[in-house]
Structure formats: C-alpha cells, structure tokens
Amino acid sequence: MVTDHEPWSERTADWVREAAANETPLLGVCYGHQLMAHALGGRVDYHPKGAEIGIQTVELLPDAFQDPLLQGLPLRFPANLSHRQAVLVPPDGAKVLARSAHDDNQVLRYGPRSWSVQFHPEFTPAIMAACIEAKADQYAKEGFNVRSLLSQLGPTPQALLVLRRFASIW
Fold first, then answer.
1. Which of 68, 85, 112, 142 is found 20 to 30 A from 167 (Cα to Cα)?
2. Is residue 139 in some structural domain?
3. pTM for this one?
4. Which residue out of 30, 52, 83, 102 is catalytically annotated?
C-alpha cells in the first residue's frame, strides 16, 4: 500500500516527481495512480467505502472530452478495478477527468504528459477473474457476491484504448 511508505516506493515517488518536472511521459495504473498522486502532493489512503473490485463503470467528466488520452470515448465505459486504497485528495493543479460510483478520482491529469488511472486498462477478463478468485473468501466476508462479480466480467475495450493511446502518443 502507498501508505506503507516502503523505501522502494518512496524512492519511486522521488523519481515520479523528477520525471513529472522534466515532462517525461507518465501513465500510472492502480498503485501507480496512487503513487503519482502521493508523489505530487495528493492524499492517498484506504477508501472509506472499502474495496472496489470487478468490472465497474467509469464516467468521464467535462474536461475529459478535450483530453488527448480520453477524447472520443463514450461518457461511460466498463473497466476492471481492484483496489482498497485510493486518491482521496488529488494534488493541487491536477485535473480529475473521470470517476466511478465508488471513487471520485478514477483518472487524473497532472500536466501535459502525465496521467494516472485507478482502473486496470491492461486486464483481460481472465486476469480480473484470477484476482477475484485469489481473494474470494475475503471478498465474500466483506459482503461481495463473488459469483456475481465473476459473471459480470467481459471485455473492456475502451479502458484498453486508454493504454494504447498513451503508447501511441508517446
């Protein structure tokens, strides 16, 4: 967890600050999303609503429609999520570009070449299923319907497009 402040993680946060200052292209995913926000002055902690897991709907906010990473995507699209910690307060100057019903800070833009996403654009349904199954007992104890989470899984092409766009831009 980012809040563990492990030495390797804090060294990576130092690198993120330097890379962002030098306008190195950056895309943080999940832990990387949280670490970028932490490194650049935001607040990360356990989400007060608990875990967000499985395929969920990401909703774009108005600033997203002109953003090179997100423009042309539908207002709402499915994405795979698996996290307990979240960006609770974005860094000063960061733009919030998307949210979910669970998490107000799904996509952040920090500068001309720096973004982060809480969701996993790289996950296939099989990878998401493996994540759910690995912690099925824990999720069930937390009140999640594991069978329902698994049955809802499917392709997330718009989420994957975010990753592909980043790669094609930079």
1. 85
2. no
3. 0.94
4. 30
- DSSP string spanning 112-144? TTEEEESSBTT--HHHHHHHHHHTHHHHHHTT-
CATH assignment at residue 61 = 3.40.50.880
Q: Is 52 a catalytic residue?
A: no
Mention every residue, 6+ apart, whose C-beta is less than 8 A from residue 157: none
Residue 25 CA to residue 20 CA, distance in Å, equals 8
Q: One of 47, 122, 133, 142 is an active-site residue; which one?
A: 122
- Active-site entry in 33, 38, 120, 131: 120
Q: Is 6 a catalytic residue?
A: no
30 a catalytic residue: yes
Whether residue 49 lies inside any domain: the answer is yes
Question: Per-residue pLDDT for the chain (170 aa), expressed as one digit of tens each?
Answer: 999 999 999 999 999 999 999 999 999 999 999 999 999 999 999 999 988 999 999 999 999 999 999 999 999 999 999 999 999 999 999 999 999 999 999 999 999 999 999 999 999 999 999 999 999 999 999 999 999 999 999 999 999 999 999 999 98
